[in-house]
Amino acid sequence: MNSPTPNWRERAAALAIDGRALVDGERIASASGETFDKHSPIDGRRLGAVVRGRAEDVNRAVASARAAFDDRRWAGKAPAARKKILQRFAEGILAAKDELALLETLDMGKPIRYSLAVDVPATARCIAWYAEAVDKLYDEVAPTADNALALITREPMGVVGAIVPWNYPMIMAAWKLGPALAAGNSVVLKPSEKSPLTALRLAEIAVAAGLPPGVFNVVPGYGGEAGEALALHPEVDAIGFTGSTRIGRRMLEYSGRSNLKRVYNELGGKSAFLVFPDGDVERAAETVADSMFFNQGESCNAPSRVLVHESIAADFAARVAALAPRYQPADPLDPGTVMGAIVDETQLDTVLGYIAAGLADGASCLAGGRRARAETGGYYVEPTVFDGVTDSMRIAREEIFGPVLSVLRFADEAQAVAMANASAYGLQASVWSDNVHRAHRVARALRAGTVHVNQYDEDDITVPFGGYKQSGNGRDKSLHAFDKYTELKTTWLRINPA
Ligand code: NAD
């Protein structure tokens, strides 16, 4: 095992945590003065106090966002001017790279190497990409007779509430902020109570970059308090939500109970990974292990349901199990570590509960299956591989959100597709076959927002991300994300003959 780099430990010890909200360009306490203690999942250490926002705090933030939108201090700027400020925001994120990476790792437990190499650069790239796009988008002129002109224009929605999860706190926030801010909206962001720290720093960086006060506010707090108040608020025009399917359902109810605000849900997944005997089985095993165990398995698109042709299933499961020890959890502050801590004790118990359910249902555990590093005071789980899983088992159907992979068997292509599609979710899928006809056939038949062929990890801000069925609606990323944060307006003009 590599020894921890003292640098990160020292920096972590010296880090000052400011858990105040950011509203109208200022860091502020909650109206009630209430806070909650944020602990690190790495070792259980208390990181600091964070504002426990409630309805009054949300009201203040929404009022600030509304005022900023209504006086057009942001929406009224030329797109090229918004671009410049957002580019400075992206540069500021990169300039604060080490601090943001450290905060993310301490807050939610992912390895520092990935916070540095993935989360910070992806966040900056997302903001910069939407900034660069916004002065290159043209509106439309409809085909009309000589006596009329019809303009079809996009306008910002107004106030966008962004409610995000803890697994990629900065990236999930950026997927909302990038298109919403570039389009001219004001945003109130409610980060997860399990990972609020980087959102607050992002907002400070945005203000320092020149984003006018009120355009980007952050109110930390619990889902049932700050989150609910934001989703019910009559002055919020749209909610960009990423989180569980259970809470996504509530977002639709909140909208129905309040002002019919637009709701865009990016929800859970149980993505199928189909391996046919005519595919590159060795590379498939490497890829599924890498993708499944990345981010401690806490990824909405983790390929947790591996469907393998019965002729190669035992061999495939054994290969993946043999790879699992590579991902053994270790100290997240050690740059050599590839798997870190589970976000908190509740999530640890959920993951261990699913492992127990798999064993009780008769699946065979080929690797892992236990808590690790309990002596650190943190929450770690061994990378776990189950074979002999059947469709009816809970571990095959429900999202676990931890490092637990299930291998199921199919007899032929039709059964493979039917099994893959027999899920309430439809976020991603992967098909492994060197037969080009089969690969296309199966890719077309799979009901998922993204289908990978002979790979899994390709991803970029240029392509949409989101799900079919109960994995959500609308899409994050790409130019399509502007659809969520803009209204289409038709303007008819009459032109008199000379
Ligand atoms: P969660 O649904 O528990 O919480 C998400 C956010 O909603 C948090 O900020 C939380 O505080 C807030 N919230 C909770 N209850 C609320 C309520 N009653 N009213 C308003 N807000 C409320 O999800 P989580 O555990 O933070 O994240 C994990 C889930 O997110 C997984 O299901 C995962 O698949 C999903 N996810 C999806 C995507 C995607 O793009 N599809 C990406 C990442 C994560």
Low-confidence stretches: none
Question: What is the chains' assembly state?
Answer: single chain
Our measurement of the CA-to-CA distance between the termini, rounded to an integer number of angstroms, reads 84 Å
Q: Indicate the percent of residues in helices.
A: 25-40%
Number of helices: 15
Bound molecules: nicotinamide-adenine-dinucleotide
Estimated structural class: alpha/beta
Taken as a percent bin, the fraction of beta residues is 15-25%
Report on the biggest sheet.
Answer: 7 strands, mixed
Instruction: Tell me the total number of β-strands.
Output: 23
Radius of gyration, CA atoms, in whole angstroms: 23 Å
Task: Give the overall shape.
Answer: globular
Question: If strands are numbered along the chain, what order do they take across the biggest sheet?
Answer: 14-17-18-13-12-20-21
Mean pLDDT: 97
